[in-house]
Write a structure and sequence with these properties.
Blueprint: H1 12-20, H2 24-46, H3 49-65, H4 76-111, H5 122-134, H6 138-148, H7 154-161, H8 165-183, H9 187-195
Helix pairs in contact: 1-2, 2-3, 2-4, 3-4, 4-9, 5-8, 6-8, 7-8
GO molecular function: DNA binding; sigma factor activity
Domain RNA polymerase sigma-70 region: 30-95
Organism: Dawidia cretensis
Length: 196
């Protein structure tokens, strides 16, 4: 990335002011200035360079899209490291949720050893799943479909539907709870679907 000759001499706060005005050079300079340190911080927690790079990229993408409305009360460095910390925590949380589903699936499969996946009619599952999803409240159904079928992230859902990330998480949690109840015997295949 070619930096404007003066950007490298500016303080983080000066760069932030220019970033808020939409100056890409200021963004590039902040990116170059902090990227390696942020990746190292993320890597220390998750021990995966690829994931650490992806999480840091998310933070910078978010920084660019929210540039005009950013309110940073402490230093830019503190803001960025805190943002990376939360991205890492969200990543770890999602891994725990996925691991929890895998454990539930394993326990369920142990209880129904005589039932094989081939015995379950895929059309019946599809029918019951669609019926259960369509019974969800409108917003809940919309958020769930974006999450599970279109693979949107929580933040992408929040942005698309103009709701908070917490509201998006609530709708997904509520949908999963309702689907677990309504699918009952078909839960094993539904759980596989929700792991995606």
């Amino acid at each position: 990335m070619a930096l404007h000759q003066d950007y490298g001499e500016l303080t983080d706060e000066n760069l932030l002011d220019l970033l808020k005005q939409g100056q890409e050079g200021a963004f590039d300079c902040l990116y170059i200035r902090f990227r390696s340190k942020l990746i190292a911080a993320a890597y220390n927690r998750i021990q995966s360079r690829a994931v650490a790079e992806e999480l840091v990229q998310e933070v910078f993408t978010d920084l660019w899209y929210k540039r005009a409305s950013l309110v940073i009360t402490r230093s830019v460095a503190s803001y960025l490291f805190t943002a990376v910390k939360y991205e890492v925590l969200d990543h770890i949380r999602s891994l725990k949720v996925k691991h929890g589903y895998l454990q539930q699936l394993a326990r369920f499969e142990d209880r129904v050893t005589d039932m094989t996946r081939e015995q379950l009619d895929a059309e019946e599952l599809d029918y019951h799943l669609n019926k259960s999803i369509n019974a969800l409240p409108d917003k809940c159904r919309e958020v769930f479909k974006l999450s599970r079928f279109e693979h949107y992230t929580i933040q992408e859902i929040a942005d698309k539907l103009n709701i908070s990330p917490d509201t998006a998480k609530y709708h997904i949690s509520h949908a999963l709870k309702e689907l677990r109840i309504s699918l009952k015997d078909l839960y094993i295949l539904a759980a596989v679907l929700f792991l995606e």
